[in-house]
Design brief:
The chain has about 60 residues and is mainly alpha-helical. The chain has a domain of about 35 residues. It has three helices and no strands. α1 packs across α2. The N and C termini lie far apart (about 35 Å).
Length: about 60
Amino acid sequence: MATYLSRACGSLVMVFTIVGAFQPETTFHIFNRALFNKDIATGDSTVNDEYSTSGAASV
């Protein structure tokens, strides 16, 4: 599983490594949201091909 995540989202695995020791509950929630295709910020929306945001393309 860790190998799959590191290929898919290397920075996400890095977050788990850094945050894991200090905030295990936060790490658990972030990991579950990523694993079950929920948006990381709230965990409410399912992320699929139709998931998008609105706003300027470049900031």
